[in-house]
Amino acid sequence: MKANVYVEYADRQFSETDLVKRAKALWTKSGHKVSEITSLQLYVKPEEQTVYVVINETFTESFSL
Q1: Which of 5, 25, 27, 36 to pair with 58, CA 20 to 30 A apart?
Q2: Phi, then psi, of 39 in degrees rounded to 5
Q3: pLDDT, tens digit, 9 for 90 and up, residues 3-61
């Protein structure tokens, strides 16, 4: 079974796929390889219009929705 997750807020829609892609871009921009990711958590806070990213339990970053 394949599940799709979407966040809808203020007439906008964000797919899980797009949010993960943006998180991976932050990771690679900091000099890492995608293949080095062992865990990825995304904390979506629509009221702050921000996604908080934790990769491999040590790398933390955020991006705007």
Answers
A1: 5
A2: -150, 145
A3: 899 999 889 999 999 999 999 999 999 999 999 999 999 999 999 999 999 999 999 99
Instruction: Report the predicted TM-score, pTM, of the whole model to 2 decimal places.
Output: 0.88
Say which residue the tokens 């908080």 belong to: 52
Residues of the domain holding 33: 6-64
Element (H, E) at 55: strand 50-55
Residue keyed to tokens 């705007």: 64
Instruction: Say how far apart CA 49 and CA 18 lie, in whole Å.
Output: 15
Assigned domain for 20 exists: yes
Residues 7, 10: Cα–Cα separation, whole Å: 10
